[in-house]
Amino acid sequence: DPYFAEPTRHPALQINSQKPFNAEPPVSILTDSYITPSAVFFKRNHLPVPRVVSETYKLEIEGLPGGAVSLTLSELKSRFPKHTVTATLQCAGNRRSDMNKVKQVKGLNWGIAAIGNATWSGARLRDVLLYYGFGPDVAAKARHVQFEGLDRDVTGTSYGASIPLNKAVSEEGDVLLAYEMNGEELPADHGYPVRVVAPGIVGARNVKWLGRIVVSDEESKSHWQQNDYKGFSPGTDWDTVDFKSAPAIQELPIQSAITHPAEGMSVDSNAGEVTVKGYAWSGGGREVLRVDVSVDGGNTWHVAKLRTSDEHNPALPPSPGRAWAWKLWEIDIPLPDKAQELQIVCKAVDSSYNVQPESSAPIWNLRGVLSNAWHRVKVKVSE
Ligand code: MTE
Ligand code: MO
Question: 14-245 — its CATH code?
Answer without folding.
Answer: 3.90.420.10
